[in-house]
């Protein structure tokens, strides 16, 4: 019966004979059962490799489990690979709990062994699925938490998910298979153990078929969640701003169920580190941020702020900078924190043929001296727009152009003493612009990082 169910599952996933299979082998009953079943599938011969991960947590007991797994694979004639990781050291660095850290490192080992063309098979059962749902309920889950353990996720397959732990133990008994027992499974330090030993038996006493009930529920909820996820992916396109933020008004027009999913997907793109898991409390924090003009720091040191109707992750603040500039007759380029300045010298005869954008960034040589610097803005810097005939402080101009405060120090300012001659993205300060009496001028064309000129 077990073989038929596993075989049917693999064929339903399109697994072909000879497929590369990486089987997570802990030495416990579930993984021993799975590996034995896979090795005995004459109707679908597979290329099996068992990967055992020693987490560096249980000393001699962990070494015992590794020896057992190696010997078991030798008996079956299955390729064996052991991987040693240091969960305590890694979790101390990342701030993860041992359980979460161990799981991440374990799957990293599986993925490395599988490569691009292999499957990863784990021995999760219907009991594991029910325990996972109950754990999510205890923590206050949304719909995604009720989906339980997916039978398929990418190249990860879980052929025993429709089988109970009792089915597994019965199979092991029928085939005289021994297995190891992890002593930490009896520890109350892990909430999952308490759910397994104290909570789930109560449900089983109320309904002997409760595991099948959990499985039916998670299957139905996964279908609903997949549909809502697809809707959220389309909705996300309607709220995304050109600079990668979230338009708050567009977000609020969405149904609440889509608002949360859109924010979750957006936040996942901003916190790339695997150990920083986004939870519902973080999504709710973003929802409360909308329209507030405030900011919040989330996992992975990700700061999100509400600014001018947009949720955004501001870049780090640019520190103040300054560098001397020596002009020459030869064209030159100068790198700044915000981009590149291209500088060229032009003669009076060239001015009538210059593009208006060049003229807007041209500084009359007769109006400047040799004591020039490129620098960040300074308090009191003023700039006059010749086209509009208006003079304001640079701070006010930058407010008007909606330049984020943390990026304002990056804007290059050409100055001589306390006089501003030219500003990247704004052009030439009117008193230093070219006129019909100009004999020579330098043109400063600013190319922002990302390729935008002005």
Structure characterization notes:
The model has no long low-confidence stretch (mean pLDDT 91). The N and C termini lie far apart (71 Å). Helices cover 39% and strands 21% of the residues. The radius of gyration is 32 Å and the shape is elongated. The protein has 454 residues and is α+β, with helices and mostly antiparallel strands. Helix 6 (126-139) packs across helix 9 (210-239) and helix 9 packs across helix 11. The strands form five sheets. A six-stranded mixed sheet has the order 3-2-1-4-6-5, sandwiched between helices. A five-stranded antiparallel sheet has the order 11-15-18-19-20, with no helix packed on it.
Low-confidence stretches: none
Overall number of strands: 21
Shape: elongated
Which structural class fits the helix and strand makeup?
Answer: alpha+beta
